[in-house]
Amino acid sequence: MTTTTLIRVADLTEIPPETNKAFLVNDVSVLICHTSQGLFAVENLCSHQLATLEGGKMKSCYLFCPKHSVRFDLRTGQPAGNLTKTPVQTYKISVVGTEIFINLPI
Amino acid sequence: MSSNPRDKNFRFPLDLGAPPGSLEGRSPHIDNGHDIVDPSRYYSPEFMRKEWTHLWPKVWILAAATADFQEPGDFTVYEHGQEEFIIVLQDDGSIKSFYNSCPHRGHRICQTERGSTAKFTCPFHSWEFGCNGDLEKIVDEDTFNKKLIQHRPGLTEVRTETLAGLVFINMDGKAPPLKDWIGLPEGYLEAYQMDKMKLVRHTRSEWSSNWKTGVDIFYESYHLPHIHPETRGSIEDFSQIDLYKNGFSRMIMWFGIKSHRHEYRDEHDLDQGVRIMLEDAGVDPNSYKGTVHDTRRDIQIAKHERAKRLSLDHYDNLTDGQLSDGWITGLFPNVQMGMHAEGVFIMRFVPHPTDPERFYYDNMLLYRHVDDPYYDVPKWMAMPEGVDVTGELRPDIERWNADEEPEIGYVLLQDYHAVKDVQRGIKSRGFKGPLWGEQEARVRHYHKEIDRYIEQSESNTVSLREINS
Fold first, then answer.
1. Chain A partners of B123 at a C-beta cutoff of 8 Å?
2. Are residues B44 and B133 located together in one domain of the fold?
């Protein structure tokens, strides 16, 4: 069983709707995505050619890598298409008031 | 002459009696002769090569629906035979298309079915291109001879035009403007307002036949009472057939009425298919008091009333027949569309890259979502449970290989199996070529147009050789 720790990442006001922003959390770059379907957190690293995912366009609960447009399902981290079959790491996200927390494995 | 197939003195062809020149009116006669074509066109690699050289580059190909593009940078990749195209919405609202091939070494640039991006980056050496196709970056540019790249090689553009919510591409760029090339009457496609519909389901299944074997079966209703016997109680299989210029065609099929071949016990013996169509129009079939002769008309009335209640103004531009019937419309060479006020059922018959005896059968369902508890997706769309029909998110293509039975609904599966059997029989030494009758006039019409493309191109090539020699 993986042990996780709850870590505050950001304030909701830092990530307006339909945008995403990366934060360094315990030496891991975590991308918080504010989509029309809610907030999601994934590792800020494409599983295809290891580009950062920050700034990638989003539609519904999907994020497109800004480099080669690989589409990741933010709910599961699963990619679509031929370029990679490896999912990106996802993190459980929670909001208390306006503060965003994620569960990071330790 | 009677226009009702049930009358004893009725003789095919069916003429619905609408004024000539109107959208519903019968098209002027086109004589395509009665010759028998060589069946090798359905399986020979040589004929496939001719199509790839003389047909596909010269015609407008349906590549996407405008519903696929919501904001600048939205793109989709369309595969057609050996080619792939990136189709992308520009900042100015226009749509451009490019060959999906990096000018550096030919690598496929985009390998995601659809998405949204600010630029395209080739996975091979990370050359970057804007959504307008312009070259933006060559990695380690100083290691290239300046003369080699002085033309700033961008993506190769393909001519692209849109009409009535549909996106077409033309490879050789020499075709007439799309609007002139579309052989249908003026305003025919626009009346349905497809640009206000969303694509809610897209399936692509690999079928074991030539693409034309697929088109052939869907271009005639002659097979309906035989391959789809359960439709006899709700669809008249004698259609009004209209042949238009440039290989386009249409058949109008009466829906919501018993075929002239169908026997019934009494005048209230409603078929299950008719009951479903009544329900689709918002009429409760259990309390319905009309007879088998009234159903089609009552479906029209009910749809008109519902459209008025829901302020669906495009119904005002549609005839009564368009509300009840199937206006089955052929876009030359490889598309058929079932036109309905609620949605449009697009079939696209996409040639296989290498095998003349396989093709991809694309089904694209365009649907105009209406947020009303008494309005739902028509049952004929065979929409699986749980599919989001609001159009908020364009669904992925559902794909099936040739060895998998596709989930496309009971009736289409009957065609799927029939097409396989036709393809097998066509190759027999005993088969001398198709004997197309009047009910199959649309089939002959588009084959004739294919032949014109091939013959014209080949004769041009011969002339050129003579001039050069």
1. 48-49, 68, 83
2. no
